[in-house]
Amino acid sequence: MTATIFDTRDYNYPDNYNEIKPKLKRLEQAIKKLEANLIEAESDTGIYSKLLNQRLADDLNLTVDYARELNPNQLLAATTVDGKVLVIAGAGSGKTKTLTYRTSYLIENGVPPSQILLLTFTRKAANEIKNRAKTLLVSSFSNSSSTDGTLSGSTLSNSYLPNSKALNDITSGTFHSFCNRLLRQYSGLLGINPRFTILDTGDAEDAIDLVNKEKKYPTQTNIQAFPRKKTLQNIISTSRNRRIHIRNLIESNYPDMTVHIPVIEQLAIDFHEYKRANHLYDFDDIISQVVRHLKTNDTFRQLLQQTYRYIMVDEYQDTNIPQKQLIDLICQPESVSLMVVGDDNQSIYAFRGANYENILLFGETYPDAKLIKLEQNYRSTPAILDYINALSEQITLGYQKQLYSEAASKGMFEGQKPIFCRLSDERKEAKYIADTIIELKPDYDYNEFAVLCRTSFQSNYLQLEFMERNIPFIVVGGIKFIERRHIKDVLAFVKILYNPNDTISWHRILTLFKGVGAVTATKLTQAINADNNSFEPLLAAPFAKKSEQLKPLYAVLTKASQADSVEQVIDDILDFYIPILKFIEDNWRERSEDFRVLKNLAQEYNSLDNFLENLALDPPNDSIAAIGKSDDGSNDDNDKVTISTIHSAKGLEWPIVFVNSLVDGMTPHHRSLDDFEELEEERKLFYVACSRAKTGLYLTAPDYFASYSGYFDKPSRFIAELSADKVAVETVRKSVFESDEPVWW
Helix or strand or coil: residue 663? Predict the structure, then answer.
C-alpha cells in the first residue's frame, strides 16, 4: 500500500454509492464506447498520422502553417471537421488555440462563415476565438501575398479575403445570447412578441415575490416559514434546468420545506403565466423556449439545421440539459459537423444546473462520434503536473488522461513539488501566506500570486493580514456591477421605455417614491397596462395625489422616449434619478461614479434593445470606475495579489497559487460528505484549484475550523489520499514571525 501523509481510514465516505450504481454503470459504458473511437495523431499504427499528413498535403494552398503552429493532437482536432467529435482538453492544453485554428481551417477550406456557429460561456471567450482567427488569417494572407498584393496560391475566395465583412458572419456568443437572437429574429415564425424584456436573476426573484404577494397563497407559516424569494427562484430554476419535479427537488434538497410543496408548485405555474402575459423572459426561458420551438416547429428546426453546418461548443462539461437539447436538435442531421471541447475533470457547476453527465454520455448520444485528447500541458511544471495527475486518478469516473509537458519529456526543469503546510489557526495560516509572498516577491510581481478559497468568507483573515502588511490585493466576487441597486434602478427606467408591460421595472421605479407602496404600485401598473401602455395614468388624480414625483416621472419618461440616442436616454434618466439617489443613499457620490461607466457603455449601442440585451446576457463583472489607473496613467494599480473563490478562478492561471482552508468539512464542503456525486464534484473543484498554478503551488490548512456548522479538525481528504511523495510537507514550530526555521519533511 502506498504511504500517504495522513491515515485515510480516519475519513467517512458516502454510503449512497449503491443507489446510483445503475447510473454510474451507464456512464462507464458510454465512456468505454467512446474511448474505443479514440483517434491519435501519433498512434502505434501511425494510421492517423498518415491520414493527417495526407490531409495537409491535399491542402497545399493553405496560408496558415497548421502543422508548425499546433502539436499533433491539436492539429488533429483542428482539421477533423466531419461528423461528431469530442475533444477532451486537459488543463492548460491550449483548447482556445485549437478552436481558433479550427475556425481558421474551416474558412480556408471554403466554409462560408455564416455556416459556423461557436457557442461559449462568455462573450469574451467567443470574441477572443473569432478575433484571433481573423487576425491569423489576415496575417497569413499578408505573408503569402506577392508584392503586387495578389494572393499566391491561397484557397481563400474573394468573399473571404481579410478585411472582408464576410469574416464577421461567424455566429458566436453564449448560449443565452444566441437563443435571444433566434427568438427575436424569428419571432414571426414562432408566433411570439419580439419586444420582450430579459429578467436577470434578481429581477426573477422580484417577479416571484410580486406574484406571491398578489396571489396571497394560503401558506402554513405557523408550521414552517415560507421560503424567501431567492430560495424560491433557485428551486424553480433548478427544477427546470435539471428536469426534476419541484416536489422531488424539495424532498431531497429542502426537506424542511415539504409542507409548502403544493403552494410552491402553484407559484411556479403562476410565475410562468405572469411572465408570458407581460412579455418577460428569465434566463431559463430564453433557452427552453428555443428548444420547445425546435421540437414542435419543423420549419424552424430545418432552417437552423440548414443554416449552421459547422458547430463548435466550448466548455461542454458545463452545459445543462436544455443546452444539450439545443445542440442535439440542431445537430440531428449526420451531415452537420459538431465538435465539443471540454474537460470532465473540471465539471464544477452543478449548483448552476450544469449536468456532468452530458460530456460522459457523448458517445451514447452520438454512437459514431470520434474522441480526441489534448494532454500536452503548456502551463505547469512537471512537478505540479505530477500532483495534478495524481488528483485526477482519484476521480472515480471519467475519460482516461495523463497530462504531460515537453519539459519533462526532454529532461528539463522539474520544478518544486507542491508544498503543504498546516498552521495552528486561521490567523497563522494567513501570516504564513503573507510571509511566503513577501519572501518570493523579489522574483515575482504581486499580480503573479493568487489565493484560491472554497468559499469567499475563508479570505477574511487573509484580507486583514494583507492590509496590515501593506500587500495590495483585489478580491474577485462581491456584488456585480449590474446587480448594484442604483444601476438596477436606472435600467428599470430604460426597460419600461422599451417594454411598458414590464411590471417588475414599474414596481421598482414607483416604490422609490414616498407615498407609493406595493399596493398603489400594483394598481398604477395595472392602469398603465389597461391604457395601452400609456404613461397618462401617472397624471390621473387618484395616483398623482399619492406622490408629487409622479408628474415629473411622466415628464422624464416622455422626454426620454423621444431621445435620439441611448446615451441621451441615460442622461435624461440620470437628471431625474440622481436627486432621488441623494435622498435614499448617503454614499450617493461614490455610487454616481458607476453612472459614468453606464454612459460609456451606452455609447456602444444604437438601440435600447441591444443595450439591454448585452447588459443582461453579458454584464460587466465590476465597476470599471472602481478599477481605475494611477494618476500618471500607468497600470501600477493592477499589480495586486488576487484573492478569489475557486469557481471564479476557473480558466485562469498564475505563477504562484495558494489554496487555503484545506480542512475536511471546508474542502470538501461538509454538505457534500454524505453524497457520492457531490463529493466527486468537490474533488474536481480541488483539481481545478491546483491546476491553476504554473511554477509554485502552496496548500495550507489550519489545525481546526469551528463554525455554526460544526467543528472540523482533519486535513482535507484530498490531501490525505495522495501518496506522500507527491507533496513536500512543511511544518512551522511556533510562528512564521518567530526565529525558528521551518522544518521540512
Answer: strand
